[in-house]
Amino acid sequence: MKFNAATWGAVLWPAFLGAALADAILFTLIDPETIVLFGVHPGVSRPAAYTVGFFGFWCIIVAASVTTLWLHADNAEKSKYAPLR
């Protein structure tokens, strides 16, 4: 599969919107200053937590979208040469 600018745009823009929505929902429900990881308070500021959360969600959604494109393209290539049933 060929990844051109249009393909990357079709992956990154919806992933950006999804990450913004997920970040907004998560941090509406959870205050970053009350998070405790493994019994230790990380001591990060709210803006830092929002930034890390956003980019974390963005990376996860981009990975899922690229995997979907890869699986779809692989399936389309196989079905192009497969006999009709």
Helix content class: over 70%
Average pLDDT rating: 86
Rg over C-alpha atoms, rounded to the nearest angstrom: 19 Å
Order of helix and strand elements from N to C terminus: HH
Main β-sheet: number of strands, strand sense, barrel status?
A: none
State the helix count.
Answer: 2
Tally of domains = 1
Low-confidence stretches: none
**Helix/sheet category:** mainly alpha
Strand proportion: under 5%
Detailed description of the structure:
The chain has two helices and no strands. It is mostly helical and 85 residues long. It has one domain (5-81).
What is the topology?
Blueprint: H1 5-29, H2 46-81
Helix pairs in contact: 1-2
Tags for this model:
85 residues; 2 helices; elongated
Short description:
With 85 residues, the protein is an all-alpha fold.
